[in-house]
Amino acid sequence: MRNFDNPFYPMILQKFYNSLSSRGYHLIFINTKNENIQEKEINQLIEYNVDGVIITDALLSSSEAQRFSNNKIAVVLCNRYIENSESSSVLCDNYFAGMKIAAYLVGLGHSSFAFISGAQNASTTIDRRRGFEEVLKGNGISKFLMQDGDFSYEGGYKAANELLARGEKIDCIFCANDIIAIGAMEAIRGKGLKVPDDISVMGFDNINMA
User: Fold this and answer.
1) What is the reported pTM?
2) Is 181 exposed, middle or buried (CB count within 10 Å of its CB: 0-12, 13-18, 19+)?
3) Can you spell out the DSSP letters for 20-76?
4) DSSP state of 151
5) How far is it, in rounded angstroms, from Cα 160 to Cα 177?
6) Which 3 state secondary structure label does DSSP give 200?
7) Is 131 helix (H, G, I), strand (E, B) or coil?
8) pLDDT digits (tens, 9 = 90+) for 56-113
9) What is each CA distance from 8 to 20, 138, 194, in whole angstroms?
10) How far apart are the first and last CA of the chain?
């Protein structure tokens, strides 16, 4: 994994550790500094002859996944997936969740929407946005503002400030995760606005801070 700043992942890693160690497995944590898993990291795991690899917030290409498969190393993607891959994936239905969030916000009477995304190429971002957008369109709302939040507090803070600087009406913001939402709320309050009186903010993940 690479994003220890997001409280969601340390929480998940603790659950991995508790479950797997109780079954007699020894865990190796690799904190990749880049979005994609690096060649040396793949070589290291193959050299160690590990039983399996769990990938959280790093990206794995289909060719890299095939290398693990060729070495009989099982790969499980957590909170993401790769199209047409033999790797297993464990995740929630992000598309359906995006739909439910849009329906909920529309039901509250909101009419001016914004979406602060995570990484643009992450399956979680793509599916949450797709479900959100489809329900809005189904309710006659063809336009909503978008800003990249990078799945981080700093990203959420910066994105919300940039959205507010546009001068367009916004009465609710859907944030791609909770830590973005916390940053966005800080930015909104910094402008003298109230949450949710002036702008409603909705996150995703249900981290402890939320």
Assistant:
1) 0.87
2) buried
3) HHTTT--------SSSBPPHHHHHHHHHHT-SEEEESSSB--HHHHHHHHHTT-EEE
4) T
5) 14
6) strand
7) helix
8) 877 777 788 888 989 999 999 998 887 777 788 999 999 999 999 999 999 999 999 9
9) 19, 32, 26
10) 22
